[in-house]
Amino acid sequence: MEKLKLAGMVGAGLLALFVATGCSSNDTEKAEPSTVTVISTETETQVATTPEPIPAPETSSTPAIATSMGSGTFVVGTDVAAGTYQTTGPSDSSAGCAYTFLPRRGASLTEATGGNTFFGPGYMEVADGQVVQTINCNWTLQP
Which N-terminal residues, if any, form the signal peptide (predicted)? Predict the structure, then answer.
């Protein structure tokens, strides 16, 4: 590797920063990119080489699909997994536990395409693409 020569630098505290994107040598392997920092004063020169950091592996940003649901509106296959869900009954014993199928997220209850109400344990079957609204119950996907 060639030696770095600094010439004509005048004045104390003069700083030079060089960033190398690669080195050449007689070796057959390509050298890893590195950062070279050169600090020079009238009386002293220091050279430090720092290897480039290795990037972290990419991780999936897709959240897992839920296998349980409480009160709310859910798109099956996006928000919750398809399958058979079971409830133990109403969360609040003074009211029933209900689910309603809607034609789309944001639809009103007057547009419902089906559903049921329970005052004890119950089941519901949901398929990918369906929109289900649940009220006053907790549902768990059955194996």
Answer: 1-25
